[in-house]
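Deliverable D4.2, example record:
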Amino acid sequence: MRVNVYIRLKGGVLDPEGETIKNSLQGLHFSEVQSVRAGKVFQLELSEEDPARARQRSEEMCRQLLANPVIEDYQIEIMEPPS
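Output generated by the structure prediction step:
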């Protein structure tokens, strides 16, 4: 089963990478860009077939390694296997 994990900085946490990207885009004449928040996406391929168990295991991975719970939020998306 494929799982997508989206990691984003919590609101209120400074995002220097996002600020740099915003400034670069504005420097390239994309003046409509008001703000950018950078994040990460992990695509996991799990041998698990039960979506509930895949979500549970992915949550554990986020808490233990993939996300820093002090400054980051995460969202887990379970992808249905192709039929």
